Amino acid sequence: MPIATVNPANGETLKTYQAMGEEEIERRLQLAAATFRTYRESGFADRARLMRRAAELLDEDREDIARVMTTEMGKPVAQARAEAAKCAKAMRWYAERAEALLADEVPDAADAEDSGAAAVRVRYRPLGPVLAVMPWNFPLWQVIRFAAPALMAGNVGLLKHASNVPQTALYLEDLFHRAGHPEGCFQTLLIGSGAVDDILRDERVRAATLTGSEPAGRAVAATCGEMIKKTVLELGGSDPFVVMPSADLDRAARVAVTARVQNNGQSCIAAKRFIVHTDVYDAFAERFAEGMRALTVGDPMAEGTDVGPLATEQGRADLEELVDDARRTGAAVLCGGERPEGEGWYYPPTVLAGIDREMRIHREEAFGPVATLYRAGDLDEAVLIANDTPFGLSSNVWTRDEADVERFVRDLEAGGVYVNGMTASHPAFPFGGVKRSGYGRELSGHGIREFCNITTVWHGR
């Protein structure tokens, strides 16, 4: 894929970029390593001051960067503004809390004495330059939720962003530069995916984090495994949205619409499989399909738009294949299901019912505004359907029965269980998955410690 801004609302190529050559990559790696040697010695107060300044600048730039994101990947501009605001919030959250999250830990005195020590403490030290391979769907948030904790821990960042959001990628480097971070503290590498492997093998790069597809995750994990380097992977998701008889159906159906079409349906943590108890299936299906039909699809720069175009032409083609395969093999289309006429990579909000295990859409992630409906006879069957996927990112459960809640929390194979609400990331809570959705955690104290050298400091008597 060329490094270019291509407007998905009309397919127009607005700007192209030349990939960095070997000399420029080498210069930036040298700079990252040199900057780390001094930046790691900075105090939390200095890092917090710089991070707060970056948040202030992001707030000032919110309208402009929102329009850049919408132009590059098609999300409704109101959602792009909200994404920028969320990033500034996370930056302030880590500026305020990083020192406490990484404070020295003192083991139990009896254990220290038993080891023969006069004192023992555990210290969190930064690892060094970390490569972040990031996707286009949340082009600011995906990066900031890595960068804010990593920089506050004393690491330096190298960003390989998706090739269709180069302006957003360059903005991020400029943001940290304008905030006063040392040169080389956060750098954007305008490179294609073919250049990633060599960078991962470079000894100056100490760790990597990737949010993206399963094949990309496998490639990064394989190289880092060979090189014995720490990785965090956040990969695909096909999250279940389970509705039980005690649920508030009206609210569940309203939230279900948002949960499926946020970011034009292009979100790893979007609810994708809607598993409904047979007692309330028909009532929920009617409300849900009605809500999906009522959405406004159109120009993502218009304030009233609910769903804009998909980010890439190939992404729309992949989604169409899944829908067509389901229709051919017996699925019922409750709404949508047909590509609209006209320019741009639009696809309508779609609800498919009668899904079975042989359909591709049951096994694969539908990355767009397409929902699948399942009927479950009881809680056990709902859990069985929910876990019948290679993914395990998050989950949504709607019930007012506490016994149901405890069963779902015990049995759902996912990194999160959201009860009577939709999955959303927040800086205070750990985020990540199991199975083929990846490993490791972002955000919260768990996220900031992922790229730290957890060091035991033992003092003899």
Outline the fold blueprint:
Elements: E1 4-7, E2 12-16, H1 22-39, H2 44-60, H3 62-73, H4 77-101, H5 109-114, E3 117-126, E4 129-133, H6 141-152, E5 156-160, H7 166-178, E6 186-188, H8 196-201, E7 207-211, H9 214-227, E8 230-234, E9 239-243, H10 249-261, E10 271-277, H11 281-293, H12 313-328, E11 332-335, E12 350-353, H13 360-363, E13 370-376, H14 379-387, E14 391-392, E15 396-398, H15 402-411, E16 418-419, E17 434-435, E18 438-439, H16 444-449, E19 452-460
Parallel strand pairs: 4-5, 4-7, 5-6, 7-8, 9-10, 9-15, 10-13, 12-13, 15-16
Antiparallel strand pairs: 1-2, 3-19, 8-18, 11-12, 14-17
Helix pairs in contact: 2-4, 3-4, 3-7, 4-6, 10-11
Description:
This protein is of the alpha/beta class and 461 residues long. The protein folds into 2 domains: 256 residues, Aldehyde Dehydrogenase, Chain A, domain 1; 188 residues, Aldehyde Dehydrogenase, Chain A, domain 2. It is 42% helix and 19% strand. The protein contains 16 helices and 19 strands. The strands form 5 sheets. Strands 11-12-13-10-9-15-16 form a 7-stranded mixed β-sheet, sandwiched between helices. Strands 6-5-4-7-8-18 form a 6-stranded mixed β-sheet, sandwiched between helices. It has a two-stranded antiparallel sheet with strand order 1-2. Strand 7, helix 9 and strand 8 form a beta-alpha-beta unit. Helix 3 packs across helix 4 and helix 4 packs parallel to helix 6. The longest helix has 25 residues. The radius of gyration is 23 Å and the shape is globular. The mean pLDDT is 98.
